[in-house]
Amino acid sequence: MNWDEYDAALFDLDGVLTPTADVHMHAWRQMFTTYFEAHGVEPAYVDEDYFRYVDGKPRYDGVRSALASRGIVLPEGDPGDEPGTETVCGLGNAKNAVFSRILDTDGVVPYAGSVLLLDLLATRGTEIAVVSSSRNAPAVLAAAGLADRFEVVVDGEVARARGLAGKPSGATYLYAAEALGVPAARSVVLEDAVSGVQAGRNGDFGLVVGVDRGAGPQVLRDAGADVVVGDLAELVTR
After folding, report:
1. Three-state secondary structure along the chain?
2. Alpha carbons 61 and 39: distance in angstroms, whole number
3. Residues of the chain with pLDDT > 90: what percent?
4. Packing angle of the helix pair 194-202, 171-180 (nearest 10 deg)
């Protein structure tokens, strides 16, 4: 890969810069397993459901998608619903409560290969941004010691405030590129989620890099990834 061809790198956060995708997966599993068992929902929630229905999407979109896979429709509720309230928002908030507890207890260490790539891009003067569906992005960046590296962070809260459609729409990535002053054609999207790879492709970005943290290389290629790596350190030596 020739970084001279690009002026900006737009990073997803969970699963790309930090291993917090595993924490999200655990939190979703706990929340849905509790709800499914309490209501006799079959089949049981499994990790494949995370990759198929939840990964990379805004939180409440993930709740709706996973419930719909079991033929369940719940009232939308309100973002202020107490965690566990039987609404889309209540279940999403229950998941977030689990995630926040784990983050506070265990902290987070960024992937070493991702830090290597960030260091390389800093020496090259490449513009960088974080584009995450999560509203927890600032907290995760702070916990990982990465907050001071990114002046532009487009997270779930920014998307809500700006009326930007979530992934797989390319809107949040396009907004980040515009904030950096770099055309999409000169920007690289780095994503581990199918919906995020699709967002990069839908935004007509110059290069879409799929980071395989469990979705599978061919799945990411089918979603539109131009290049698939297992770790961002691979992009340091290319």
Report:
1. CCHHHCCEEEECCECCCECHHHHHHHHHHHHHHHHHHHHCCCCCCCHHHHHHHHCCCCHHHHHHHHHHCCCCCCCCCCCCCCCCCCCHHHHHHHHHHHHHHHHHHHCCCCCHHHHHHHHHHHHHCCEEEEECCCCCHHHHHHHCCCHHHCCCEECHHHHHHHCCCCCCCCHHHHHHHHHHCCCHHHEEEEECCHHHHHHHHHCCCCEEEEECCCCCHHHHHHHCCCEEECCCCHHHHC
2. 21
3. 86
4. 60
CA atoms within 13 A on the CB side of 35: 25
Question: Cα 146–147–150 angle (5° rounding)?
Answer: 95
Catalytic residue set: 12, 14
CB 11 within 8 A of CB 152: no
Q: Please state, in angstroms and rounded to a whole number, the distance separating the CA atoms of residues 2 and 236.
A: 10
Q: What is the pTM of this model?
A: 0.80
Q: How many CA atoms lie within 13 A of 199 on its CB side?
A: 32
The model's confidence at residue 8, banded by pLDDT at 50, 70 and 90, is very high
> CA nearest 18: which of 150, 111, 152, 126?
111
Specify the pLDDT at position 238: 55
How much is the pLDDT for 106? 84
Q: What are the structure tokens assigned to 73, written together?
A: 């429709």
In sequence order, the β-bridge partners of residue 9 are 128, 188
